[in-house]
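F.,

This is the one I mentioned.
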């Protein structure tokens, strides 16, 4: 039992550490320091951190600090979206709506928007309202 509690405590500590570094990436991104955002997010994204994966997707989708590459953006957005991150689900839906890096597919876009909206992500609800 004690070993299990230690394991749970370690997992929680790592989760908090990942979030702190992901937040550092977001702070750098917001300041326009895309190289620093990339440096913060890449190792975390490689380890499965959904927020960092979504951040990388944004860098690639917009060509900020990296060459614009929709295929890479979709890869990262999809990894985060499949983990349930609503912002990434919205980004993936938007890519399908526009056909950025994927075949344009309104139905798939709506499906991703609904997943995000069901979690209370307001931009997804707004776009769904405009699509109806």
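My design for it:
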């Amino acid at each position: 039992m004690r070993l299990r509690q230690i394991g749970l405590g370690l997992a929680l500590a790592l989760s908090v550490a990942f979030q702190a570094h992901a937040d550092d990436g977001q702070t750098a991104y917001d300041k326009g320091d895309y190289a620093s955002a990339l440096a913060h997010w890449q190792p975390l994204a490689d380890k499965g951190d959904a927020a960092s994966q979504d951040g990388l997707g944004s860098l690639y989708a917009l060509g900020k600090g990296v060459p614009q590459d929709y295929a890479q953006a979709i890869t990262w957005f999809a990894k985060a979206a499949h983990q349930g991150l609503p912002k990434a689900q919205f980004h993936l839906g938007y890519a399908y709506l526009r056909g950025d890096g994927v075949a344009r597919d309104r139905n798939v876009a709506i499906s991703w928007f609904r997943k995000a909206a069901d979690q209370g992500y307001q931009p997804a609800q707004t776009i769904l309202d405009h699509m109806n």
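Residues 1-18 have pLDDT under 50 and may be disordered.

Talk soon.
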